[in-house]
Amino acid sequence: MEQLMQQAQAAGLSQDEGKSSLGAVLSLLKSNIPNEDFTKISQALPEAEQLASETDADVKSRDNGTGGLLQSAMGMIGSGGGGGTSGGVKNPAQMLALLSSMGIDSKQMMSFLPMVAKFVHEKAGVDISSYLNVPAASSDAMAESGSSASQTDGTGTGSLASQATNLLGRFGK
């Protein structure tokens, strides 16, 4: 976990933002990957279940405060299918919207996501790159992904909408 938090800081995230970002990724994975893969991740990263659960609770509390606005808006974009039963983050667009509401921009996330994918692949043996729309989690691919990980919308900034659209493409929605 400490290694991931150092990588989060390298991506321009504070310690709290790194934990929030990781929690959102883990909640997304819990909702979409086979249960046995999430179990492998939880074994390699003991904080995984807690971080995902905290994010799930955050999503629920934000929805309660807005009449389910976040869930409703993201439901219109599409929801991810998957093996988990989490009540939290269901699709990449919802993950990005949640993080944006916390003040974390898509450029920071697009820098951090390949780091998370590589960490999970190395520690748990689970390739989550297709769920996050990042290059394959091999060491060689990650070394080459520095510039390609920060996808943009043509303006050089990578809008939240374009990132969500790119991520949703991985879910076939």
TrEMBL record:
Comp. bias regions, Polar residues: 145-166
Family annotation (InterPro entries): DUF2780_VcgC/VcgE
Gly residues compositional bias, start-end: 77-86
Annotated region described as Disordered, given as residue ranges: 49-86, 142-173
Pfam assignment, any one: DUF2780
Entry protein name: Uncharacterized protein
Species, as recorded: Phaeodactylum tricornutum (strain CCAP 1055/1)
